[in-house]
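Question (not urgent): is this output format expected?
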Amino acid sequence: MAENKFEEAVINKLKDEGWSYREDLSNVNYNKLYQHWREILNRNNNIKLLGNDLTDTEFELLKVELNKNRTPYDSQLVLAGAGNIGTLPLTRDDGTQLEIEIFYGDEVAGGRSEYEVVSQVTFDRLPNTLSKKRRIDLLLLINGLPIAHIEEKDESLQNQWNAFEQLEKYDSDGMYTGLMSFVQTQFILSQHSAHYLARPKNPSSYNKDFVFGWRDDNGRDVTNTMEFIHQVMGIPALHRLVTVNMIPDAANDNLMVMRSYQIQATRAILERMKQMDNNGLIEKEGGYVWHTTGSGKTVTSFKVAQLLASMPRVRNVLFIVDRVDLVSQTFENFQSFAYKTFEKRIKVVNGNQLKRELKENNQASYIYLITVQGLDKAIKDKIIGDKVVKAGLHSDERMVILMDEAHRSASGDSVARIKKALPKTTWFGFTGTPNFYSDEVNDVKTTRNVSTHDVFGRRLHRYTIKDAIGDGNVLGFDVTYYVPDIEADADTSMSDQDLEQAVYTSLPYRKSVVNDISTHWSDNAAGPIEYGVRKPNQFQALLAVSGKQAVVAYYNLFKELAPDLRVAMTYSRDEDNGLGASDLQEALKQAMQEYTQRYNTTNFLESQNPERDYLKDLSKRLARKKPYNRGDDADRIDLVIVSDQLLTGFDSKYVNVIYMDKILKEGLLIQAMSRTNRTIDRNAKPHGKVRFYRKGEIMEENVKNALVIYTKGGNDTIEDAEEQPSDEEQKELIDDKILAPKIAKQIDELQPKITVLKQLSGDDFSQEPKGQRAMQEFALIAAEVNQKVQRLVQQGYKLGSEVDAIDEQGNTTDEKIALAIASEDELSALQARLNDVNNKLPADKQIDLTNIRVAIEAYASEIIDYDRLVDLLNQYMDETISKNREAVEEHITPMDDKSRDEINGVLDGIEDGVYKEHFNTETLKTARKSIRSERRELKLRRWSADNDYNGNEIVEAYDLYMPGVDLNDNPKLSDKMSNIEKNAEMNFFEMASFEKDLLEFFATA
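Got this back:
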């Protein structure tokens, strides 16, 4: 389907969903939208304006106000306004001050809201480009404001990511200013795929990880674009998306849009509340939301809390967490996500403070954050209870309790006490790992005799780890098991207690763990191979051990055996000590002092709450959050040793491995493993790594058991546990993407592709494929192979090594196989040819190779052994024979085309007697620079002659050229080009073509 036909189909579907197509505002200049907006403002503010329409001067003042929107975050705050009415301030010509209403957040599909779609709007004066040909596909207008921008692509012609890059380009051109600053969401549509994203704050913030597809209420992917439009872009769905479902993130000056499962869970809770209100009931068990760890529960729970606090019959929301350190963390997040008008309605309280707050007859509802321990203590001490709550409630009101990490509250007596003491409350739980009853059919045993369902009521929404991995929101796991010799040699008849003392707390065992971690540190912590270089220390790790005593013991061992690693430790007072005796509090103080000295931080021991402040700083450093997000290596920490802390509720995309020297199962195991599965560059981090040291066979069974529970969906009730699963359900228990595929399987799949690449470019990847069709085939296959080889390396495969082959059933055999790319030099040669070939393809056929290009520039002198190259050239100078020249040519294969041409020029110079004295690294660089300059000038003069321009002027212009810098920011080059145009007596159209052609040529010269 041609793009124009597809666009027509999209417009017709939008019309079916309630949008009005404005043909008179389509195929027009952007400025016409301003006039349309002005007409709507006059109509909606007629009473405020006393029937006197806005004057030209007044309208210009409003346009000035628009220019204050620097980011989508700014414009979202304007749209939200106060009381869900977005306004702009205006001083009229007569001095009257007004708030002009521009948006009605609560008038969804009614009232004064107008919904219009326009197409093919043109922009001719964008601030950051000289181009006058920018034309966008579709805009969705609410009350004349362009709220959503849609770009379409015909799948048969172009990949959908071309549209993403097009949006990024529009942003860099400066399109999203003025009226366009109100664009909140961007959509990418093709016939069989549809995605949406919150408009990023600037061009450099565009990230494909935050481009979302849609799942329906049953968790199925919506790939039919017309169905996507119905569910997401219809009225009132789109209006809600840009209001209720947007999250302003003040901490990052950013705007977030909720994913489909977050929207559906929020809606399910609100509908549950409305159902109770309609029935005149206050049920305690509202329900629970199961959203897997890493899926954004904090955002969902905040939005739910805010919306519940705004409901007429809700008097306050209690948000309960189970750890003191999570209270301040949650408070900071909630403050960051709140609109300015809501910030002061979020408070952290203890029991006494909560009592005072509940007795006050506030007009508005508040969100109070408190620990379950603090609330339970206040109940037991009779600080708060039914009488206190009733004092702040009218007869038809109730309080809502939201509990984070709800799986941890499903056992123990505290929740039962709180429920009994606060009868007019409704409870909702959020958890990534609910507690379930055993599943006898699938031989899945749990240790729970109370489920999350028993405490909170029915499950309202589910989004499992299988769903999240499928959506790309989290990573799967690469799980390995290491058995130290002392454990392998232990007496199998020993009891667990004897094993603990004889093996797991022994010095030899712990030394073997430390040695294993330190020996493989560089492989686990390094980034991908990019043009011959693998950056070290790009990732960090956790070591989870059994008890505080073990934390201290391991910390001291790392200082002794691996002093180069930057290691820290942490635990809380209420954690288990483990076996052994030591002054644990003194050990933590010592570790805090050493941390302070290493990083030159404030002295935590002098603060009012040393442990909390230390953990807060440590967590920020591990997650590389402000102020540790500057990329300064001095801020880096490598490994943090923990017992229980940081194993739940802590997120960092830079943690890529957790080492486990403790026994965990079920939800706690999944929670700990999930510290590693936050997404970042997939080449650098294809999976979260988990390495078990203790009781490998038991932990392998525990991992399988836990994954079955948290991918299939567990049993909420005894009745559920008795149901027979279907054959299809049993087949789907473990999805291939949840655990990393075996290395041998990946090698088998790569070998045929590598064979094709070698047929196209030679066994050493030294030749460019002949013809555009072959080049395009090479580029597509090479990009895929490069990506998958990177992921193999990150998984632990060493190029050139052999691994056990596997049969069709996935079992290992006696045969050995090795990848057909045998070294980092060979991979670099492939990357070099990929870059060369890609540069020669037409622009619309090129692949995004940003990382490779950057690496080529950054590591140009490190790609090969430069000292070895000098020696080989000097040998050729001493004895100019073909064997010595071939040795040089083989050595420079990993270089890009231009670099190889320069070295070949040096070889020719040696043959011609130009170079007679032996090179060193500096004189070789000088020779290469001279050759580069001569060849570039020749290329510039040839291009000038071919295009009938003055060669001297073009050479002078190139000397002023700065790669990646726009003409607007390079006035010297701009002036020079104007002189060339004037001397050549070019007309307007010739000038536009000349500027475009010259800059494209300079980029490749």
